[in-house]
Every structure is written in structure tokens, then in C-alpha cells.
Amino acid sequence: MRLILRILKLTVILFVGISLFMVILYRFVNPPITWLMITRGFERKSDGKDWKIDKKWINFDDIADPMKRAAVAAEDATFLENHGFDFKAMEKAIDNNNNKNSHKLVGGSTITQQTAKNVFLWPGRSYIRKAFEAWFTMLINIFWSKQRVLEVYLNVIEMGDGIYGVEAASQTYFHKSASDLNKSQAALIASVWPNPLKWSPANPDDHILHKKYLIMKNMRRMGPLDF
Known about the structure:
Layout: H1 2-28, H2 35-46, E1 54-55, H3 65-75, H4 87-98, H5 111-120, H6 127-143, H7 146-156, E2 158-160, E3 163-164, H8 166-174, H9 183-191, H10 206-221
Parallel strand pairs: 1-3
Antiparallel strand pairs: 2-3
């Protein structure tokens, strides 16, 4: 029993140390790849496609302001005020998902939570993964600035089949850099994030066009993004 407890203690210490190191490292170093990118790459290979990870890092200051505003308007309206978690949004999501009359799952994750999930964790849904997500979200909130959180988020988010980040997405769908995106294009990119393998900013259906309208409406209501 003592041996088991010692192993568990060492495992916890090792995990805490490694996770702290990685979070602090990525405060200064851009994440080169994520588990989702690797997983999607192997999924493409199993489908008989070529390996593809199309990503181009773009610094925060070079991202067009409408793209930053669209991300916040679409995903996390309290981003600048919250401490990594939006408990009201989480409560609403739980109530909606427990409603038998609701046919659509709704997420309550903040941009910080999604960044923790995308950068440090594997794809999937489980209580264990949620616990890890909460841990990394707390660390990111402590060690990263809001500007860094949004920069990493916009550079690693899945944007299509083998496409990651707003720079690769902007060049693929609009043939321009993310530094040159206008409000409409930025809102279209943000509209497809729930399922970028199903929807495309270049060929939006009525659902995506409606989401674009709502995002642009929220963008007009927002105050300045004061980082």
C-alpha cells in the first residue's frame, strides 16, 4: 500500500510539474502542433487521403481587429472579464442539454477552456478530460495574458479538413491574409467553428449566413477590445 501511495504521489507531482512547464513554455513559444492535428492527420490517411496539416502562424498584432472581435462575439462574450470560466454560460448549457425537448447540444466553454482543450488535450468527451481541461484552464488564466490566449486560440483552431488557424483559413477561403479580413469575412470564419468539417466560409448555407448575421450583430454591441 505504501508503494502504491508513493507511486501515486510521484505521478501527481510529475504531472503537475510537466503541466506547469508546458503552460509557461507556451506563454512564450508558439505550440508547434496539437493532438487534434495529429488525430485528423491519421484520420485522413485511413480515408486514403494525403497527410495534411495546413497552418500558418500569425502574430496577434497582425490579425485584423474584426477577426478578434468576431471570435469573442461568437464564442465568449465575457472573455475579457472572466477568469477562464463562464459559470452562467455553463449552467445554461447544462440546462439546455438536460432538456428532453432540446435536439441540439450546446457548449458553455470559454475561449480559455477551448484553448486548453485544443493545445494540451486529446479529442473526445469524458469527465476525466473535463477535469484536465479545468486544470489547464486555471493554469492558462494564471500565466497567460488575455492577448496570448486569443492569439493561440486563433492560430490552432480547426478551420477545415487539414486546415488550422485563421491565417491558413483566410488564405484558403478568401485568398488573403488574416490581417486583411473585413467584418463579413471574419464573421463567416467564426460561424463555422462548431463544425468546420461540415461547413465552409466560402460556401455558406442559410444556417451559416444566419449565424454570421448574429455574430455581426454581437460585434456591433461590443465595446472596444481593451487588452
